[in-house]
Amino acid sequence: MSQTSKIAMVALVVAAAVLVWWKWPQAPQPVQSQSKEHSSPSNSLAAAGRVEGREETIAVGSPAEGVIKELLVTNGQTVSKGTMLAVINCDEISAEIELDKAREDSARQARTRLLRGHRDEERSAAEKGTEAAKAILTQAQDHLDHFQPLFEKGEISRDEFQQIKRDLDVAQANYDRAVEEQKLVNAQPLPEEISQADAEVAAAERTTMVTSARLEKCKVRAPISGTILKVMTKVGESYSSTVPHPILTLADESVRHVRAEVDERDISKVKLGQLSTVTADGFPGQSFKGRVIEITRAMKSKTVLSEDPTQKVDRDVLDVIIELDHPQQELPIGLRVTALMTDATAPPATPEISSLPASSTVGRSPQGNRVAATEGTVNPSKIVLQVAAMARKENADALIASLREKSFPAFVSKRDSDSLYRVDVGPYPDAENARVAAKELTSAGFGAAIERPYHGSVR
User: Fold this and answer.
1) What is the count of structural domains for the chain?
2) Residue 321, domain member (yes or no)
3) Per-residue pLDDT tens over the stretch 279-312
4) Whole-angstrom Cα distance, residue 203 to residue 100?
5) Checking phi first, is residue 44 left (phi over 0); if not, alpha (psi -120 to 50) or beta?
6) Quick check: pTM over 0.85?
7) Which CATH number fits the domain that encloses residue 180?
8) What are the DSSP calls for 280-325, one per residue?
9) SS3 for 370?
């Protein structure tokens, strides 16, 4: 084959290879999936969470173990704090209580007998015994007196006279013993005997109390007022405190909160008062408005997981409590939701001032000098700083005490339609003074505060 033919053949093979490559279908390029954790815009923050009541759902159990004897509630039933929910069979403890009560009664009776002393019949017998011994002693003395002169005259023998004297000594001894016995019968109990009797009664009472407390633990009572979400046991089933298995779950449904889990990379974007929009797959096309009322102080492991395979489950999260604007009773407790928190904060509402610091100097100038607010004025230009919103008044009062120790003019505001006690600081004459105070609050360790116009009157 000539050189020209070889070159032509190589060119033909190359052309065929190029044609095959051109016609061959291209492999699809991998599409990079974007995690839902980063799908929210830069000015918002999305976090998964679950619906809860006023507080987290309570899994109600009992420190006692045994068979469920009675279930006194059903799913959806509203109960008050202290209501009996279930009874565990503790018949053996009831038998112990009966025995303990019998021992307690016996100890009390023994103490009563000790304090009362001997019976009247015993005292009377002792007295008569003493009188009889005295009569015999008198008779023996008279007998000796009669024979004494005769012995001296030698009319009776010495042996007879010695026998008469011995009879007198015996009568004297019997009389002395009778007197001592009468004193013993009439004597009061010794202090140590009374102390011992009191100790025995107290020990019996404590034993009965301990056993009664054990029996009371067999009665499962509601720790809070709320609604029975689910009864998780049946009559006849065994309950053991060593194996975690609640008897029922209970929650306060008077309000609805959302406990959202914010990723550890986004916790700096969360602040009190932040507006939030809550959505759920079970309510398509609906959204529920709310605001952040509490930010927890400790990180934890993620518990609300989605079906997204790209979700990072090895990151820690921070719980954020979102209060919904309305009760939203249609949202079931435990429903998994998504909370979208924006940079905006909730608009201020007119507070009802429940208490104010005694000092009338309630503002600070940018230079740190206090600025007095005029009492009885209504001035929307003034600014207050909301430090926290708490469900219990005692917690709000404790925070106010801490703020006032640092010379911050703190007070509690509460609206009639609001279940929260809001801890405010101020009012301040303008935004500049409020910003200075906000920095001082942060420096003092009280965290971020929400600025809002002051519409209330100082009392």
Assistant:
1) 4
2) yes
3) 998 888 888 998 999 998 889 888 887 655 555 6
4) 10
5) beta
6) no
7) 1.10.287.470
8) -TTSTT--EEEEEEEEEEEEEE-----S-TT---SSEEEEEEEEES
9) strand
